[in-house]
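User: Hi! I have a protein structure encoded as tokens and I'd like to know what sequence might fold into it. I'm fairly new to this, so please keep things simple.
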């Protein structure tokens, strides 16, 4: 221990031995002997015993570091965007300048409770992100316990009911396939049940013309700013083959191009940009009667000539996927086969949709049964009685 000209006490701590057999030292200092001893203990804990000591870290700084190092490199672009949105919109504005060690469980539960009545997915994302951040902070020995570990989810808004197209809507949609500028984009969704990102990632080489199969093997996600990028599929089950329906083949063959070309390219042959895809969808929905004009007094962030500020689609591209599953069910297709065609990871996801459809048809069957076995109208009852009386009397 030696006092420097600066007035600080300074000492060195041996933290190991180098490859050449020389000792490795870490120098520590403090304004008093007590501070120096604390610094010495901290160095021993950090470099030798591996225990570490709690540090003063702001939630915002640590959460950003957690995202960049522990999440972003290992997830798809769309999942990374989801984490980024959760942090930027919901967590950093409220907790960003707080010390990690000062945040208490009751405070986090109160934060989560303010989202009561909102969507289940949003609340799940907020809770999951908090739990993951504080779990990492605990592993890094920045906090002694995870204050988000036992967070409870408040009541959520019921999810919007997914629906298939009606017969009339199917006919209007099908009419666009051969005539509309973007009809082929809609047709691929309709006839394959692929996720929108999978459709945008489809290349001509993915179509096996001899076997009549479409190989789903890539996805196009969007990074910040809507920039398109080819990424991995959502799950391992998403890598699959889908039979090429005859009507779709008839539409695709005349447009056939080189194997590496995207079916629906953006500028310079790159994947379709996000803005372009959204505009295409709205135009398609307007032309098949599945979009509504946006009221003139409703403010939007789009320019006067942008169709996104003029119309609002009643359904999303994902509705084509739900419609495909519905049509498979209506055709009596085995549920396990449907599961493979749409790339669901587990049986329950597909079964839940089939169960929903079964309930809908059971309700319709109940109406029909009530009509069949319910009391006949009075006039019909009287006519039946007179006919029976006439028969008895010869």
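Assistant: Happy to help. Inverse folding works backwards from shape to sequence: for each of the 394 positions I chose a residue that suits the local structure. Here it is:
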């Amino acid at each position: 221990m030696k006092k420097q000209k600066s007035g600080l006490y300074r000492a060195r701590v041996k933290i190991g031995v180098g490859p050449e057999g020389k000792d490795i030292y870490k120098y520590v200092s403090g304004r008093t002997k007590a501070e120096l001893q604390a610094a010495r203990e901290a160095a021993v804990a950090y470099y030798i015993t591996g225990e570490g000591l709690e540090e003063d870290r702001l939630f915002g700084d640590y959460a950003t570091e957690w995202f960049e190092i522990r999440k972003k490199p290992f997830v798809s672009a769309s999942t990374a965007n989801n984490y980024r949105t959760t942090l930027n919109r919901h967590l950093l504005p409220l907790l960003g300048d707080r010390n990690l060690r000062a945040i208490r469980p009751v405070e986090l539960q109160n934060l989560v409770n303010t989202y009561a009545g909102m969507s289940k997915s949003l609340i799940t994302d907020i809770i999951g992100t908090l739990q993951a951040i504080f779990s990492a902070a605990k592993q890094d020995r920045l906090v002694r316990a995870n204050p988000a570990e036992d967070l409870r989810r408040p009541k959520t808004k019921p999810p919007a009911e997914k629906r298939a197209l009606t017969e009339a809507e199917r006919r209007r949609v099908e009419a666009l396939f051969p005539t509309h500028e973007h009809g082929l984009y809609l047709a691929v969704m309709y006839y394959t049940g692929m996720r929108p990102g999978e459709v945008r990632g489809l290349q001509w080489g993915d179509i096996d013309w001899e076997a009549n199969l479409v190989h789903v093997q890539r996805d196009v996600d969007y990074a910040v700013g809507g920039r398109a990028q080819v990424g991995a599929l959502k799950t391992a089950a998403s890598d699959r083959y889908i039979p090429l329906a005859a009507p779709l083949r008839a539409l695709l063959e005349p447009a056939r191009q080189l194997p590496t070309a995207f079916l629906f390219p953006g500028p310079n042959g790159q994947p379709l940009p996000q803005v372009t895809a959204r505009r295409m969808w709205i135009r398609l929905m307007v032309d098949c009667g599945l979009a509504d004009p946006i009221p003139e007094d409703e403010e939007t962030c789009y320019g006067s000539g942008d169709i996104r500020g003029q119309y609002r689609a009643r359904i999303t591209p994902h509705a084509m996927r739900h419609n495909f599953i519905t049509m498979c069910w209506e055709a009596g297709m085995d549920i396990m086969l449907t599961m493979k065609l749409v790339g669901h990871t587990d049986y329950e996801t597909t079964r839940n949709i089939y169960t929903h459809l079964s309930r809908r048809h059971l309700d319709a069957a109940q109406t029909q049964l009530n009509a069949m076995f319910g009391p006949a109208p009075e006039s019909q009852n009287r006519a039946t009685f007179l006919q029976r009386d006439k028969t008895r009397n010869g």
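A useful reference point when you look it over: The CA atoms of residues 203 and 262 lie 4 Å apart. Feel free to ask if any position seems puzzling.
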